[in-house]
Amino acid sequence: MFESVGSLAAGPWIYAVVSLSVLLDVFLPVLPSGVLVITAGTAAAAGSGAASAATGRVPHGVPSLLALVLLAAAASVLGDLVAYRLAWRGGERLDRAIARSRRLTTAQERLGGALARGGGALVVLARFAPAGRSVVSFWAGAAHRRARDFLPWSALAGLSWAAYSVALGYFGARWLGATWLATGVSLAALFGAGAAAGFLMRRQPAS
């Protein structure tokens, strides 16, 4: 199992898959971008561990943890920016698009009020909440918030989420081995952070 998970890292395609998934899940929150980022981190740990044990060095095909974090964060910010600009011009079409997604509608109902009364730190929290990233990006654009007020927090949110997700996959594999148990524990930690973020946002006092 250790070697089979490590083989997922072979080739540069893993970067493209992770980046595209993170970029698009602002529009399609059902995409498993978090699962892919964790899997990439697990594959990096598995590939580097197996290779180091056999040859004493990490092969070229194993993904770089730093590259995974930076690419996932950059894709997150780019997706946020596209959603923000579309919402800025959207109007009724945006409302209809959100209404067609049960997940986005639920997230908007739960998080919209907190975002309206909160500050930039809530943008970071929302990145971990289910569909929170989508609600934040669309809401900031629809409310015509200035890009210079939104994008720095979006960048911090994307970097925090990417680093956390990659670390979960990497250290989960290091501590528990590249097994389904390690992947399950890492995913549980990611979903737990999302649940905690949503809870904290809803508890924000009105200002």
Describe this structure in words.
Helix 7 crosses helix 9. The chain contains 10 helices and no strands. The protein is an all-alpha fold. The N terminus is likely disordered. It is globular and about 50 Å long. This is VTT domain-containing protein. It is found in: Cell membrane. Pfam families: VTT_dom. Keywords: Cell membrane, Membrane, Transmembrane, Transmembrane helix. It is a multi-pass membrane protein.
Structure characteristics:
disordered N terminus, 10 helices, VTT domain-containing protein, 78% helix, 207 residues
Q: Helicity level, as a percent range? A: over 70%
Class computed from helices, strands and strand pairing: mainly alpha
SSE succession? HHHHHHHHHH
The helix count comes to: 10
Mean pLDDT: 77
Termini gap? 52 Å
Estimated radius of gyration: 18 Å
- Shape field: globular
Oligomer: single chain
Question: How much of the polypeptide forms β-strand, as a percent range?
Answer: under 5%
Got a strand count? 0
Largest sheet: none
Query: Which spans of ≥5 residues are poorly predicted at pLDDT below 50?
Result: 1-6, 50-58
How do the strands and helices of this protein lay out in sequence?
Layout: H1 2-6, H2 13-24, H3 33-55, H4 65-90, H5 92-99, H6 102-117, H7 121-128, H8 132-142, H9 147-176, H10 180-202
Helix pairs in contact: 2-3, 2-4, 3-9, 3-10, 4-8, 4-9, 6-8, 7-8, 7-9, 7-10, 9-10
Task: Write a concise synopsis of the structure shown.
InterPro entries: DedA-like, VTT_dom. The chain has 207 residues and is mainly alpha-helical.
